[in-house]
Amino acid sequence: MSEALIVAGARTPIGRARKGSLVDVDAQTLAIVALGETIRRSGIDPDLIDDIVLAESMQGGGVIARYVAHRLGLKEVPGLANNRHCAAGLSAVQIGAASIRAGMDGIVLAGGTESLSSTPQLLKSTPASAREPKPWAPESHPDGPEAPAWDMSITVGENTAREAGITREQADDWAFMSHQRAAAAVSSGRFDDETVPVEVSDGNGGVRLFARDEHPRGSTTREQFAEMDVLHPELEGATVTAGNASGLNDAAAAVMLMSDSAAAEQGATPLARIVSWASVGIDPVLTGLAPTKAIPKALHRAGMKLDDVDLFEINEAFCSMAVASTRILGIDHAIVNVNGSGCGLGHPIAATGARMVVSMVHELRKRNQSVGCVAMCAGGGMGSALILELL
Length: 391
Hints:
Elements lengths: L3 E8 L3 E2 L10 H16 L8 E5 L8 H8 L7 E4 L5 H14 L5 E9 L6 E3 L9 E3 L15 H13 L3 H20 L10 E4 L5 E4 L11 H6 L21 E11 H7 L5 E10 L9 H12 L8 E4 L4 H11 L19 H19 L3 E8 L3 E9 L1
Parallel strand pairs: 3-4, 3-5, 12-13
Antiparallel strand pairs: 1-10, 1-11, 2-10, 5-10, 6-7, 8-9, 11-14, 13-14
């Protein structure tokens, strides 16, 4: 069986949706920037790419991967769109790795792109015969009071806190830590070697380069987190606030995957190998606990234990689920989300999983460590995890 190797990766900086630097940069353009830079960093002939797998979640359908291929001049490279909600970008990497390990493809460009700033507004007539289109969006799971399809603050945040016994204070502690870590990483330039700047409007008819993540709020004090109103005061013991939830964000990220034989033929230097991955389904009421199922499953497939992992990133859809996952699995906070995650750094939905893979490879290299695990929950009662090993 072929190994699935990561030979390059890049991401755009993460912008604040609807009011940040990337507000007028659509998902297609973000993908062109991230994928184009990944190709450049790989040093391989782009015409040799077998496929592009690109996650998209809130862009209204279509196949952005094929559009990007055209824009990059790769007219003979096909494209595949995939959607696993929050885990879509991670699943894109897994799909590419699976094709390589199966011996079907030798080189796959995989990642995700998201522009919540430019999410299209969909209309639908219900029933169709009514011919009265109204705003509509597909549900991640059947709607219900215990797991509202369009209120993840309850379905993921509050349900997880209640199930795992997480308090508001514990969620706020994690949020403060995430923002502090993310802000420190951004200000110190820790992400500079994994990001590619994006040209944006300077507001005066010209352009400027948007080069660093803008979501972290390092100046927000722990006391200010405590002063924020809960989103659902009607719930006893409510924990979720805007401060301890993930952000609404724009970004794109990608990795170049190659088989070991293709890498050798092209003289590409591998950075890491994909060891294993696993995705799981769970009752939507328990969506936030999905990483506690996906991580052990991925580790089992890798023949590893928790202690074999040097660094974890568990996406902070809501901080209650990150606290719950580490508590249930017994993971030391010191090796989890060392540069922040969804809360502090931002959560550009379809791009997040791929961003996590790019960041994990770079962080392991900086620390001279070997094994990393990235994991996340996903809307509809799903979760996914991936294990990679530095080479």
